[in-house]
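job 3f2a | input accepted
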Amino acid sequence: MSTDTGSRDWDMTFRRAIQTLERNWLRFWTAAVLIFLYMPIVIVVVFSFEQGSFSTLPWSGFTLEWYRQLLSDSAAISSIYNSAIVAVAVTAIGTVLGTLGAIALVRHEFPLKRGYRALVIAPMTVPGLILGVALALTFSYMEVGRSLRTVIVGQLVFITPFVLVTVSARLRGYDPTLEEAARDLGASKLTVYKRVTLPLLAPGIISGALFAFTLSWDDFLLAFFTSGAQDTLPVYIFSTIQRSQTPVINAISAVALLVSILLIGLSLLFREEY
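job 3f2a | predicted structure (274 res):
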């Protein structure tokens, strides 16, 4: 009897567990996905403040020592500076090219328009590894020395299409009769672009620019294949990890993560407000 009672109790417990899972499966699945996605990020940030030299539990105590070492590391500061230069250049050039390409794609009709769109957007679909190898070989064949300039060129190939797509989405919701009204009132084409078109497209342009900066700031594959002696921040982090496991890497990663989060937040803010 005791065996039968224990078996029935186990069956009841199992059925209740199944029923609970059926009622809350979406919550369990969401929680599991969030933990899987964000746990590594949380670990990096948490251990950037850990006093011990090894990222292990339990904590040895809270410290800002690794951030102080980061500020005194000339190579790390140089890599951050290089990434900032590349990101600013890519953002400026990519935003101009992407905006002009979006205007041409959405507002004008011309032969082979579908082919133009396919060619411009194609780099978005090419794996970064393949694109990086292709760019490295191209620079080698052209006998162009790899430097921050080649990193900028390589990232423009990949990032400009993202700006184009972002601005195109804004253009499709744009009322062209506003430009016609400005022309009817005597405004020149240049004045219409300055006073009407650009202000209305500004949220999409700014959002695309912030997106471009984020992509450039975080890029590793293209920078790895196209940079020379001057490392960008992702390449520096990778090379440092290959040599040693120092908690300073956690501090550098936390700083890079903070910059990315701020830029993404600004991009979302512009989209919501406009």
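job 3f2a | The mean pLDDT is 79.
job 3f2a | closed
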